[in-house]
From TrEMBL:
GO CC entries: membrane
Organism for this UniProt entry: Pseudobacter ginsenosidimutans
SMART domains for the chain: HATPase_c (SM00387)
Superkingdom, natural source: Bacteria
UniProt name for this protein: Signal transduction histidine kinase
Length: 262
């Protein structure tokens, strides 16, 4: 009787030990699952971070490539032609086969082309390395160009100087606005026979709007063949999803309106 009780007690102890072992094994199994899950999540997180950084590097490389292509195109279009003209005029002036008056005219053109080339190089450097993301640096550059050009010809220049400070623009948007502005102002100075040039920039319907207007002789848009300057203005805004409209009536001045989505 006592022996049977001891055997039963022993069996109960063995059963308890087995149950404890099973519970411990279950706890260890759960811990392994948690550890494996944590390591898996950690691996996925590291892989995700690596993928995000790789994409960021790829985007940065694409931006750098686009910037290099843009610089190359600007150097070719804006500077290359002027340098070629300077070289040819210098060769002709130094050949000794032209009259003194012709030489003076050629040297005057060389001076003019050199100034234009310096200005264009300054524009390219500014486009590569702007001072800020807001419109402050663009405003200052546009104002300086407008007043320098107008003062040299005794023309009144007006610039709306407040709107740009509240508008944040990307570098492509700044570049397009500035080059459209320069082309419109240069056209007014060359062809409009104007006494006043007004530049206004505002934010309208999620777009930035540039208006360059003059009170010159105007022209009939239907009778004027669009040259590279007018086409460039339209193409620059179109590339950014915007538009450039040229409104003019003979004898009533000209308005160039360019809108670029923000």
């Amino acid at each position: 009787m006592q022996t049977a009780f001891k055997v039963e007690e022993k069996n109960n102890e063995i059963a308890l030990l087995n149950k404890d072992r099973q519970l411990q094994e279950q706890r260890l199994f759960r811990q392994r699952i948690i550890i494996i899950g944590a390591l898996t999540l950690m691996g996925l997180a590291i892989a995700g971070i690596f993928l995000i950084r790789s994409r960021q590097r790829l985007r940065q490389q694409m931006k750098e490539m686009e910037l290099r292509n843009s610089i190359a195109a600007d150097l070719h279009d804006e500077v290359g032609s002027s340098l070629s003209s300077i070289y040819m005029l210098s060769e002709m002036a130094s050949s000794g086969k032209t009259s003194t008056a012709s030489q003076q005219e050629m040297l005057h053109k060389v001076t003019s082309y050199s100034k234009e080339t310096m200005d264009r190089m300054g524009d390219i450097v500014w486009m590569i390395k702007p001072r800020s993301e807001d419109g402050q640096d663009l405003q200052e550059r546009m104002q300086r160009f407008l007043f320098e050009m107008c003062n040299s010809r005794n023309i009144n220049g007006h610039f709306d100087r407040d709107a740009l400070q509240q508008i944040k623009l990307s570098m492509p948007q700044k570049k397009a606005l500035y080059l459209i502005f320069k082309e419109a102002v240069n056209n007014a100075l060359k062809y409009a026979n104007t006494e006043n040039i007004s530049v206004q920039i505002s934010k309208k319907d999620h777009s930035v709007e540039l208006v360059v207007s003059d009170d010159g002789i105007g022209f009939d848009p239907e009778k004027i063949k669009k040259g590279s300057g007018l086409n460039n203005m339209m193409n620059r805004s179109k590339e950014l999803g915007g538009e450039t409209i040229i409104s003019s009536v003979a004898g009533s001045g000209t308005r160039v309106i360019s809108r670029i989505p923000l």
